[in-house]
TrEMBL record:
Species for this entry: Paenibacillus whitsoniae
Domain N-acetyltransferase: 1-135
Pfam family, one: Acetyltransf_1
Signal peptide (residue range): none
GO molecular function: acyltransferase activity, transferring groups other than amino-acyl groups
Protein name (database record): N-acetyltransferase
Claim: Disulfide bond is one of the keywords in the record: no
Amino acid sequence: MNIVFASDSDYEYIKERDHHMLEYLILPKIRQNEIFILKNDDCGNIGWMRYSYFWDNTPFMNMLWIDAPYRKKGTGTKAVLFWEDEMKRNGFKLLMTSTLASEEAQHFYRKLGYRDSGCLLLEGEPLEILLTKSL
């Protein structure tokens, strides 16, 4: 598996699959290197990861998506560790992410050293768990 910064040519791939982001934000995030593409040598793109900044100063992983056939094979771990290395290289000392309490991802992030740091409860939604990790 390879992890690369998304490029303008990945716009359609992201637009067709990432339904949690406003379309007009895709190109700016690509151009700011805030989206990574996960690639498999055999079949091309197998997922993506995107992030932003909480409080405009703390990297916050907004989305990690891996196509079903590539899950539970270390792909997610590699993607998160790649992102962590990039953020450390850029001088950041704290990272954040979140997951719904109803999702298995909370256990994945805890295994990678993320700690529960708070929560958010929106009407009609499961509890959103905020997680942080010091680098």
